[in-house]
């Protein structure tokens, strides 16, 4: 009886290991296809599946790189439409408008530099659910996903930028509360996970996604040091639903606190936003170049 149970366990383990290897081999194949310059990698990957494209997804424009076949960087301007996000301390600016302005500037800069393809989840003041934003990322098979936000806190002295990367454990109570609030604002779904083999494979993918997201965040912080005012612990971890569902290395950038008079003044102008925009662009390009060379 004991032996039979042990045998059953061994066979079960072998099947799970084989499935994981199969998944990893598939990932390697996919990266190969992207490097060979196939612009249709996203469509090809989705095979026979049909996707219902709603208006939000259909309107997305991908700006080309100078060299074809480069990965797509998807920039997500936080909030929009009926969800204006935080309001600045002066009472004159909305987070949704500043996030859009900064996202556009980052997209313009990346397009000019021409090393990656770039797209925006929204180019105007419209409401998108978190699932729609993540859906655009999956649909485009985005190489990186960056969500741009402006922070706000009850303490008027809190200031500086923070880069959050995806995690299943928040790095602080504040980060946890923040993730809950952002997830709620965008109509997040509850997380799935049923203990099946499919859930196990999804877990392997999620681990890879979290590691890649953290290394992107670290790179961004390094590029920003000395040029941008950062919070004392500028790299934080939080369980953002939109980052997880984007199925790409993903970070959420809080450009600064619009509840702080100094940060608000800076974030209100293109000139004030420029150092962070440049640091993000350089980090994105370096991250994708390292990934392609692997
Ligand atoms: Zn926000």
How would you describe this structure to a colleague?
There is one protein chain. This protein has 294 residues and is an alpha/beta fold. A 7-stranded mixed β-sheet has the order 1-3-2-4-7-5-6, sandwiched between helices. Helix 4 (95-113) packs across helix 10 and helix 7 crosses helix 10. Strand 2, helix 4 and strand 3 form a beta-alpha-beta unit. The chain has helices at residues 2-35, 41-46, 55-58, 95-113, 130-140, 173-185, 197-224, 241-245, 261-267, 270-293; strands at 62-63, 72-77, 117-120, 144-151, 161-166, 230-238, 250-257. Zinc ion binds at residues 78-79, 85, 95, 149, 182.
> What is the terminal separation in angstroms?
48 Å
Helix coverage percent of residues?
A: 40-55%
Radius of gyration: 20 Å
Mean pLDDT: 82
Order of helices and strands: HHHEEHEHEEHHEHEHH
Count every helix, treating DSSP H or I runs of 4 or more residues as helices: 10
For the report, how would you describe the main beta sheet? 7 strands, mixed
**Helix-strand makeup class:** alpha/beta
Taken as a percent bin, the fraction of beta residues is: 5-15%
Outline the low-pLDDT stretches: 27-53, 189-193
**What is the topology, as strand order, of the major beta sheet?**
1-3-2-4-7-5-6
Oligomer: single chain
Number of strands: 7
Q: Could you say which small molecules are bound to this protein?
A: zinc ion
Molecular shape = globular
């Amino acid at each position: 009886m004991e032996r039979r149970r042990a045998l059953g366990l061994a066979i079960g383990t072998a099947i799970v290991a084989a499935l994981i290897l199969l998944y990893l081999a598939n990932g390697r194949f996919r990266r190969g296809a992207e490097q060979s310059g196939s612009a249709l990698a996203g469509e090809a990957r989705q095979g026979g599946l049909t996707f219902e494209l709603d208006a939000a997804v259909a309107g997305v424009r991908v700006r080309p790189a100078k060299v074809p076949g480069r990965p797509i960087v998807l920039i997500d301007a936080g909030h929009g439409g009926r969800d204006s996000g935080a309001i600045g301390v002066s009472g004159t600016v909305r987070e949704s408008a500043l996030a859009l302005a900064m996202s556009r500037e980052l997209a313009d800069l990346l397009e000019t530099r021409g090393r990656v393809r770039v797209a925006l989840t929204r180019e105007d003041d419209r409401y998108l659910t978190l699932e729609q934003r993540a859906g655009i990322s999956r649909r485009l098979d985005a190489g990186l996903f960056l969500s741009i936000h402006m922070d706000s806190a009850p303490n008027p002295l809190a200031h500086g930028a923070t880069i959050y990367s995806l995690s299943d454990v928040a790095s602080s109570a504040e980060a946890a509360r923040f993730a809950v609030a952002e997830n709620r604002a965008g109509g997040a779904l509850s997380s799935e996970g049923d203990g099946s083999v499919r859930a196990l494979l999804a877990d392997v993918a999620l681990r890879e996604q979290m590691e890649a997201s953290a290394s992107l965040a670290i790179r961004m912080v390094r590029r920003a040091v000395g040029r941008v005012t950062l919070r004392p612990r500028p790299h934080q971890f939080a369980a953002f639903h939109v980052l997880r569902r984007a199925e790409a290395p993903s970070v959420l950038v809080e450009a600064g606190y619009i509840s702080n008079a100094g940060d608000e003044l800076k974030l209100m102008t293109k000139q004030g936003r420029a150092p962070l925009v440049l640091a993000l662009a350089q980090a994105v390009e370096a991250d994708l170049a390292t990934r392609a060379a692997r």
